[in-house]
Amino acid sequence: MTIVKTTDFADLILVHRGKVRDMYALPGFDDLLLMVATDRISAYDVVMDDVIPGKGEILTRLSLFWFELLADIVDNHLITADVDDYPAVCRPYADELRGRSMLVWKTRPLPIECIVRGYISGSFWSAYKQDTTVCGFVLPPGMRESDKFAEPLFTPSTKAELGTHDENISLAAMEKIVGADRAREIATISTRLYQRAADYALQKGIIIADTKFELGVKDDKLILIDEVLTPDSSRFWPLDRYAPGQGQPSYDKQFLRDYLSSLTWDKTPPPPPLPAEIVDKTRSRYLEALQRITGE
């Protein structure tokens, strides 16, 4: 297994290094980008010094699966994930790119995160405990942690810079950013994507409690970009252990967050070292999510 923490491709142009992905422009191809999923992992908006071996490959395989399953709802930015079909300038890096990269169309990303919630958890649960009106949604009293909503809620947020937190906003606030018509289109597409994926995952024994989509604009059309429905961008719960009224076991990085919360770390850099057991158990959860959803 090739472990990749940080990429360095001298013949390509690094345009963005995120928490997990490195994005490159290709000389001579102004409308293309190369997206590489590393084995980095972040929690509480801090990138850990330790990696999760193979994580980038798991995220890529899951995204490719969902791109295909959801393609009839909205177009996506994927051109190919076959390294042999990449432009020649990428060939010197084929071994490092194989299995963890995608050649994609360049788009103009929306300035918001498209979050859909099927269950009350995380920051939404914390907000609900303070006020039953959350992000403009008037929720029924008496909800328990991890309860299912009557229907999925589209709850956008602003995009934060690396190291800072996204901020939940109302639909009205989103309309001021992107316009009313585009806001309705974004909400409709995001909700349809979530419902299709949630229905499919339930058949595989996984509850998708919530997820975050990225949408971009190309030729004035919305298309699905970045990663899709991975343990980094979603809460995956095992159906056979679902018990409302408490936090749920998960196949995502909540396991890592729970470990970090048990420490005296103040959730700012530098991060604490991760014991081998935590790395191994985190990887096994990501791998089980891949196996259950895709059958691989």
Which structural class fits the helix and strand makeup? alpha+beta
CATH class wording of the largest domain: Alpha Beta
Strand content: 25-35%
The CATH homology group name of the largest domain: ATP-grasp fold, B domain
Mean pLDDT: 94
- Structural Rg: 19 Å
What does the largest sheet look like? 7 strands, antiparallel
Number of helices: 7
Q: What is the terminal-to-terminal distance?
A: 17 Å
The string of secondary-structure elements, in order, is: EEEEEHEHEEEHEEEEHHEEEHH
Q: If classified by CATH, what would the architecture of the largest domain be?
A: 2-Layer Sandwich
Shape: globular
What's the number of extended β-strand segments?
16
Number of structurally distinct domains: 2
Here the CATH topology of the largest domain equals D-amino Acid Aminotransferase, Chain A, domain 1
**What is the helical fraction, as a range of percent?**
25-40%
Low-confidence stretches: none
Written overview of the protein:
The protein has 296 residues and is an alpha+beta fold. It has 2 domains: 13-106, Phosphorylase Kinase, domain 1; 109-252, ATP-grasp fold, B domain (D-amino Acid Aminotransferase, Chain A, domain 1), CATH 3.30.470. Helix content is 29%, strand content 26%. The chain has 7 helices and 16 strands. The protein has helices at residues 55-69, 94-97, 122-130, 171-178, 180-203, 254-261, 276-294, and strands at 13-17, 21-26, 29-37, 42-43, 46-47, 78-80, 101-105, 108-109, 112-119, 133-134, 137-138, 148-154, 157-158, 206-218, 221-225, 234-238. The strands form 4 sheets. Strands 8, 9, 12, 13, 14, 15 and 16 form a 7-stranded antiparallel sheet that branches. Strands 1-2-3-7-6 form a 5-stranded antiparallel sheet. Strands 4-5 form a two-stranded antiparallel ribbon. A hairpin with a 2-residue loop joins strand 4 and strand 5. The longest helix has 24 residues, at 180-203. The radius of gyration is 19 Å and the shape is globular. It starts with 12 loop residues before the first strand and ends with a helix. The mean pLDDT is 94.
